[in-house]
């Protein structure tokens, strides 16, 4: 079995760029929430149009502080993980989980009212697309090529010449 994964230079650079861009998005969202003392997910959760009971529970007075803290911590962890290429598989999975929660709170399903969105969608929205992109990042270990994980991996990823 070959322990060497071969991608061409453009493929690797594209995947690393995708990882970094998504990492920046997550880190920005986490930091902006961290430094805004009035930010809370309560309004977003209470306006959920799907699984209202679950999201209402997350927004309850007994849970909202934990929910907000975990949301901010997860956003920052995912962002740093993807930007630095350190534990990016974990970061990708946690990011997918967050995005699926955001998606399910306000899914663009036919017959459901539109929640807070930047446009009119039908089944697919930016949360689902970014989750799919994170799944691609999870499948392709770009942090083994560019990132801190490169210091700890045994498999070598090198650009092919073909």
TrEMBL record:
GO cellular component: membrane
Major localization listed first in the record, in broad terms: membrane
Lineage of the organism: Bacteria, Pseudomonadati, Bacteroidota, Cytophagia, Cytophagales
Pfam families, sorted: DoxX (PF07681)
Name assigned to this protein: Thiosulfate dehydrogenase [quinone] large subunit
Keyword Transmembrane helix among UniProt keywords: yes
Transmembrane segments: 12-35, 55-83, 90-109, 129-148
Membrane topology of the entry: Multi-pass membrane protein
RNA-binding found in the keyword field: no
């Amino acid at each position: 079995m070959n322990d060497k994964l071969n991608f061409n230079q453009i493929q690797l650079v594209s995947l690393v760029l995708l990882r970094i861009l998504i990492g920046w998005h997550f880190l920005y969202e986490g930091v902006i929430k961290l430094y805004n003392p009035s930010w809370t997910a309560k309004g977003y959760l209470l306006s959920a149009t799907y699984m209202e009971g679950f999201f209402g529970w997350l927004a309850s007075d007994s849970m909202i502080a934990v929910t907000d803290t975990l949301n901010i911590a997860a956003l920052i962890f995912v962002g740093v993980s993807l930007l630095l290429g350190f534990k990016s598989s974990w970061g990708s999975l946690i990011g997918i989980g967050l995005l699926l929660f955001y998606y399910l709170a306000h899914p663009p399903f036919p017959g459901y009212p539109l929640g807070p969105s930047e446009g009119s969608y039908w089944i697919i929205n930016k949360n689902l697309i970014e989750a799919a992109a994170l799944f691609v990042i999870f499948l392709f270990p770009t942090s083994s090529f560019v990132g801190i994980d490169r210091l700890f991996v045994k498999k070598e990823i090198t650009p092919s010449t073909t």
